[in-house]
Amino acid sequence: MGDHSHGSPDDSGTVAKAGAGDLDKFQDPGLPPHRKRLADTDPHAEKRAERQVALLFIISIIGTLSFFIAYFVLGRPEDISEIRLQNAMLGLGTTFAMLGIGIGIVHWAKTLMPDHEISELRHEIRPEADRQDAEQIINQVVEEMGIARRPLIRNTLIGAIALAPIPAIFMFRDLDRSGKNAGAMVEQLRHTMWDTNVRLTRDPSGTPIKAADVQLGSVFHVIPEGLNDLEDPLNEKAKAVVLLMRLDPALMHVSEERKDWHHDGIVAYSKICTHVGCPVALYEQQTHHLLCPCHQSTFDLTQECKVIFGPAGRPLPQLPITVDSDGFLVAQSDFHEPVGPSYWERGSN
Amino acid sequence: MSTTTEYTPKTSTGRIANFVDSRVGGSAMVKEFGRKIFPDHWSFMFGEVALYTFVLLLISGTFLTFFFDPSMTHVIYDGSYNPLKGIGMSAAMSSTMDISFDVRGGLFMRQVHHWSALLFVASVSVHMLRVFFTGAFRKPRELNWVVGGLLLIMAMAAGFTGYSLPDDLLSGNGLRIIDGVIKSIPLVGTYISLFLFGGEFPGTVVIARLYSLHIMIVPAIILLLVAVHLFMVVVHKHTQYPGPGRTNDNVVGFPVGPVYAAKAGGFFFIVFGIVALISGLFTINPIWNYGPYDPSPVSAGTQPDWYIGFVDGALRLMPGTLGNFSLDWNIPLPWGDNSLVLNVLLPALVPAGIMFTIMFTWPWIERWVTKDEREHHLLDRPRNAPFRTGMGVAGVVSYCVMWAAASSDLIATHFHVSLNDVTYWLRALFFIGPIVGFIVARRIALSLQRKDREIVLHGRETGVIQMSPEGTFTERHEPLDPYKLHQLVNYEDRQYIPAQPDAAGHISADEKRRGALSRFFFEDRVAPVTPSELAAQHAAHGHGPAEIEDSSTESIEK
Ligand code: HEM
Ligand code: FES
Questions:
Q1: Which of A309, B5, B368, B406 could form a disulfide with B313 if both were Cys (CB 3.0 to 4.6 A apart)?
Q2: Which domains does chain B show, CATH number per domain?
Q3: What is the pLDDT of residues B142-160, one digit of tens each?
Q4: Do residues B31 and B17 touch, judged by C-beta distance below 8 A?
């Protein structure tokens, strides 16, 4: 068998095509004989097909009308079940309107329009003569421009074109509307609203929390006091939300520098997952695990929220807390490290 | 200049045609397209579904723009849906609530828009799989394959930007994940995030920015790509499946007018009808259940739209630490520490990157390995290209593993197994699955080819049992008619091409690599039956019964 896969497309000026040139191959018997449809030979069948198509179009008309019934008769629904009903009826009306037309036309085409398959020759996408002409024209254009002979013009043009788009990139600098310089922009990611003596309050009501209210095994969703009074609270909230839990101090492994960050086993950790930022809010009391619902990172509360499973790469930052003179829980300071997902400038601290 | 006689039309069609033609010259176009031949096959339908769902997106999306307010201004909801009355939310969310509850048919339009979006990405994907498995991307259609790949990426971009617009709890969470992924990009990621959100997440501008991308830039790019795509289809003419009378030099099918146009046009209404049915009966994205975006509440068990799932799944599969080494890695550099967030960066970029790179370059990879520079207008049945089918299945498997991983929590609760175990299994499957998929799919393709050989050589099984004079029972086999026979023997017989020396007699390393790959792909192959083989078979056995297992016809070359 000849190896026909080496045909170079360029040598003879014609494009090599697949499937030519094998000797020991079955002959193509050509298109199978055409079989007539019932409607081609039987006038009754033809009439019947005609009526079927018309019926489908009439179904479409009924569908469109029922759309209007749903729209006007049901009017302006008041509660959710009425809205569901109206939506379903509008949908069904449209369904019949469209399927009636669609199936009708396809049925018409299949039963009544000619179903002879026709064979047409493919023409060459690129007649060789055209290609040669084009090549000549391009050569002539390049020649008349003389760009090859005038490197000074060419090089300065390349330089100018390379520089010209750069302002367009810089114009996007003010997409950040804070007016901060680059360093300050990145620096803001390190800080949250938490500060010395800022009270821990309940999310979303903003009521402060007494240490005595925090029972063993309970969990509080916490925002800093004053968050709700901000004009635009979401930005601060996206960094400052905290989980507050009480553990049996005997279970806790506390490192030396954090030994006074908790109050009687009451600990506060950032609720923003260090993976890509979802709120970590599933607390498994028996195991003392915090679980992020987005990608299942699991943090061990007894080991200062070390990652024990899943894609997060850092422990949840801990908020150092204490109680104020009224017995309310307050922060000792801001977090000691950035909260949430890591970023290039984050570094170890 | 009045020497030429003016053409005077006789019929009213003629008059209209003449009016148009003498002003814009349409008759050449009618001549070109009016009876142009299009081959017909059910698998050619997916591209049409993609086109039609895109049209539905344009129609329903335009309706939505008249009511949607892309602003993050804080408002108090005061619409018809009682449970959320008096709750603070963004104007975007509030206007989406109004579209759902206070604009008649608005909910229907939203659901048409969202279901069409899901179906759009799905049909683009299935269409691409069809093109891949049948080899329709081969010369001269490589560039159109690339355009199709870009369309898939833009479809996902359109879906994602749209999904974020209503500013509900889910879409906000989705954006937050994107923010985390962007921040993991070394050097520039932090800035890209700050620029995109106009400051820190979530800011007050991102919805408006996504909105101009979603309703203008992305649809315009898609429209442009669709135009280029269809233009190339016309230039190349459609491929066709092999069969009697169908050759590499002809197109067999129906003329555009009237049959093909009627079927394709009618099909638009069918797609519309089906989308309307789904949108009428099945709720999608009920934002009133989720509530407005707030960085604090949880939303367990929620899923992104399906086409984003594979990225989410890849994020889940990646471990954050290896032993005591955190993949969220602080690199000590002369000026201090920087963080390289490998546990996010790798899964977000590498699997999708590899997949799209192989996808885009596959036509050239295949051409290089097979040294096949010819034009192909006849498709392969997937079984007749076992190596390609294997590769395609490997790709599909790796995609599906990531996709399944996006539902690892649902898998765990549904089958009552530990979530961690599900993750470990999926991690293993991520590496083993594609290899097993390749081997199994290729083996299946080869055995189907072998079955075709059997049928050609021994005829069709009739189910009639005969007893020979010697008393043995055999099943009678009937010879194939020439049309069916042609169907089974007429395929491309790709063979292993060993590394070839160049003009100087030297075999380059590149050529050696190609040779190795060619061997890997084509070492096992099933050759089509040739007439002489069939004649020999008939001479040996007559036309009567033949044994089913006949090792002498085995043509697997090892
Ligand atoms: C090109 C493909 C497109 C895709 C895949 C797509 C996808 C989506 C999705 C998934 C949503 C969320 C819908 C929801 O609320 O559940 C959406 C919203 C929206 N889309 Fe599109 N869309 C596309 C094109 C368009 C176009 C062309 C327009 C306008 C001309 C448009 C206008 C809108 C508007 C105004 C919304 C917000 C309203 C709402 O969420 O209900 N879309 N889109
Ligand atoms: S965001 Fe928490 S695991 Fe991904």
A1: B406
A2: 1-33 (no CATH), 36-70+83-329+338-343 (1.20.810.10)
A3: 999 999 999 999 999 999 9
A4: no
